[in-house]
């Protein structure tokens, strides 16, 4: 009887080890997989984080990305978008949250220096993982906004009108879901993010 129980334990342990190994291999395969034509990781553009670090988008490959375009001096829509992003963070699956990056991209790179983005991150208690703030050149920002179907226009020296869209990308950098509007029901957005994060 003892031998049978020990044999069962060994079998279960072996099966779990194989399962863990498969997950690890799948994750590595995803990182080594060729970039598809629909991926944002094809963009060769350089971006700067709130910590002053220069990165390319492809350095984020292997994570589920949740992105929104804002500017830090905005007093109307952006605070609501930030609140929506914070609500999304609060509802991420605790076990797979490490596979998600929440990214705020500035549409006003002239004003939003890394120092400004850092101050904004600290003021909004978003100066830790999984939050990333990005800025680039005006040209790169316009190109990226077009990919996200985000329209924006300067309407005064300090104000922009802009679309209110939260975009979700799979680990390969492909756009898989968009939430449009402010303060909308985000159940479908959360479900999609958690589902994708579980696959990693």
UniProtKB/TrEMBL annotation:
Keywords carried by this UniProt record: Copper, Disulfide bond, Metal-binding
Among its keywords, does the record have Metal-binding?
Answer: yes
**CDD domains assigned to the protein according to its UniProt record, in alphabetical order:** SCO
Q: Does the keyword Metal-binding apply?
A: yes
Which InterPro entries does the UniProt entry name for this protein?
SCO1/SenC (IPR003782), Thioredoxin-like_sf (IPR036249)
Record field: transmembrane: none
Which residues are noted in the entry as Cu cation-binding?
74, 78, 162
Disulfide cysteine pairs (residue numbers): 74-78
- GO MF annotation terms: metal ion binding
Q: Which family does it belong to?
A: Belongs to the SCO1/2 family.
Q: Which PANTHER family match?
A: ELECTRON TRANSPORT PROTIN SCO1/SENC FAMILY MEMBER, LINALOOL DEHYDRATASE_ISOMERASE DOMAIN-CONTAINING PROTEIN
What this protein is called in its record is SCO family protein
């Amino acid at each position: 009887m003892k031998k049978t129980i020990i044999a069962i334990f060994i079998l279960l342990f072996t099966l779990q080890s194989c399962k863990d190994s498969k997950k690890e291999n799948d994750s590595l395969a995803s990182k080594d997989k060729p970039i598809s034509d629909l991926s944002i990781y094809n963009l060769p553009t350089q971006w700067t984080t709130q910590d002053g670090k220069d990165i390319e988008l492809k350095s984020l490959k292997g994570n589920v990305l949740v992105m929104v375009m804002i500017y830090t001096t905005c007093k109307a829509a952006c605070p609501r978008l930030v609140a929506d992003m914070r609500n999304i963070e609060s509802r991420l699956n605790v076990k797979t949250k490490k596979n998600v990056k929440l990214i705020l991209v500035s549409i006003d790179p002239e004003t939003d220096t890394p120092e400004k983005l850092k101050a904004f991150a600290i003021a909004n208690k978003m100066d830790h993982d999984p939050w990333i703030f990005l800025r680039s050149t005006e040209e790169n920002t316009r190109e990226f906004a077009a990919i996200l179907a985000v329209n924006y226009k300067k309407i005064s020296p300090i104000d922009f009108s802009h679309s209110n869209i939260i975009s979700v990308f799979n680990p390969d950098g492909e756009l898989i879901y968009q939430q449009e509007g402010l303060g909308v029901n985000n159940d479908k957005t959360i479900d999609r993010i958690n589902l994708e994060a579980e696959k990693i």
